[in-house]
Amino acid sequence: MPIRKIITTPHPVLRGKAKKVVIFDADLHQLIDDMIETMREAPGVGLASPQVNEPLSLFVAEFGDENDEEAPLQLYTFVNPKITKTSKETEVGVEGCLSIPGIVGDVIRPHSATIEGSDRDGNPIKMEAEGWLARIFQHETDHLHGVLFTDHALSVWEPEVDVGQVSSAD
Ligand code: ZN
Fold first, then answer.
1. Is there a cis peptide before residue 81, judged by omega within 30 degrees of 0?
2. For a designed S-S bond to 154, which of 18, 60, 106, 147 qualifies (C-beta 3.0 to 4.6 A apart)?
């Protein structure tokens, strides 16, 4: 399965609105599998479809447990995701993005978020996430609306070490 090329700013597809997925066929499954492989190879903790130049509403994410380094990674696939509820409580976290290499920034987001969408076969799924996982889901859902973390970052800077190793490069 091929690794897809990750597009970077200022590619216009990163600024477009992703199209709703209506057909859950082998082509979609191939795209999802390629995205998982591309995310792992990057490496990143999440990848939205527009980042591989496919403006469809879906993302993949893979993350363990921020409180337990030995917890196994969990793989998530959300098709046509929507954030349907967020907490009033917010927190600041340092984000990066595979489509904006060499930059990280402080971003305020709700601490927890409910996400609804469907799985790769079109079955509805709903999940409540908190902390980093909620942040990843919000960052990836933003991509499907053409929004990048730099749009609402409090400040951005160039880290001295490789972004992918220190924070959430997605
Ligand atoms: Zn990103």
1. no
2. 106
pTM of the model: 0.92
Type of residue at 122: G
| 168 vs 4: CA distance, rounded Å | 20
What CA–CA distance (Å, rounded) separates 35 from 167?
A: 20
Query: Hey, where are the domains in the chain?
Result: 12-157
Mean residue pLDDT of the chain comes to 94
Q: Given a cut of 90, is residue 54 above it in pLDDT?
A: yes
Q: CATH classification of 12-157, choosing from 3.50.50.60, 3.90.45.10, 3.20.170.30, 3.30.457.10?
A: 3.90.45.10
**C-alpha to C-alpha distance for 27 and 159, rounded to whole angstroms:** 38
Kindly give the distance from the C-alpha atom of residue 123 to the centroid of ligand 1, in angstroms, as a whole number.
Answer: 25
Ligand 1 center to 138 CA (angstroms):
10
Cα(8) to centroid of ligand 1, in Å?
10
> How close is the Cα of 69 to the center of ligand 1, in Å?
23
For the annotated catalytic residues, the residue numbers are: 140
